[in-house]
Write the structure tokens for this entry.
Amino acid sequence: MSESSAPAPTAPAESHLVAGERVVIDLGGLEALLALLRERGHRVVGPTVRDGAIVFGDIATLADLPRGWTDEQAPGHYRLRRRDDEALFGYAVGPQSLKPFLFAPRLRLVQLRRSAGSFEVAGERPAPPRLAVLGARACDLTAMSVQDRVFVGGPVPEEDYAGRRAALFVVAVQCGVARQTCFCASMGSGPRADGGFDLALTELVGAQHRFVVEIGSARGAEVAAALPSHKATEADERAAAAVSARTAAQLERTVDTVGIKELLYRNAEHPQLDDIASRCVSCGNCTLVCPTCFCSTIEDTSNLSGDTAERVRRWDSCFTLDHSYVHGGSVRGSVRARYRQWMTHKFASWIDQFGSSGCVGCGRCVTWCPVGIDITAELATIRSTDQQATP
């Protein structure tokens, strides 16, 4: 069946849809999806254009999405430009991942109030928000699975993260373009998402603007069954597969991950680290945009009268001096030491801690570094000049 003769979505899909099945919706079906998620009590967030970037924001209708916009990315460079079509998701990744929705940038852990000469805990922690995210990409879903191991995979799950994670409904979008800074294929995280979502959309822009919807969970099946759709045809599935194949072919950057942990451990004093430190401004941008970094710090404050005190957790970065401060000073006092800590943790000691790399190849650290430091190039240089390579 040709694209032009593909059946149009009509009635809601059959209620017996299950994970792994695929249906097709049109723009009206996507609008219905947004409305249905709101009806089910979710706050819906998705890609919006704001301040010269594509960032997550509240989505009410399709008009809020970045229709006809794309991005160009390079080391230290990000710009938006117009596409020559009406694609809603025709961009790579912006500066935000799913991390802020799950690992809150600022979280009040406890508040104490003075009462009758003592203190009492003020109030209870609010219930986690019912959030639906539209537009998550394969690298971000992999990053979410990495953070799942960090926050809920151990013997004592982090309560706030676990609650937010359980309440999250994920509508992923399969990448239709790759940018110069992407290297997800090297890290085994993309460009196609094979799991970690409730629903996943592949956008097909042409004579019929439509979306192939893959069902990834029982929750996703329940939602998809209520949408106007039709079962995906072989032609639909071939077209969706072609989008992912074309995107994979666009990837330019690579990282050789064979023995990378041992490579970095034995090159802890590599001279390339001095070269990196001469360029790095220790701003922490790479850690803030990274979808897996989880450094945090704790702050205790009280009001001027001393009647109220609270403890807050907020994001931190291993690029700050205070992050490694112990009595007497910072353990990592130089930019060289801090960059080495970040790179070695991400690609080496993370593997020892959690069984996988801490990098998913999204390329954000390359794009949003103000001086354009490219982690893929730095790793390649260290490998090509391995100081203790076996003859």
Summary: The mean pLDDT is 91. The longest strand covers residues 106-115. The two ends are 58 Å apart (CA to CA).
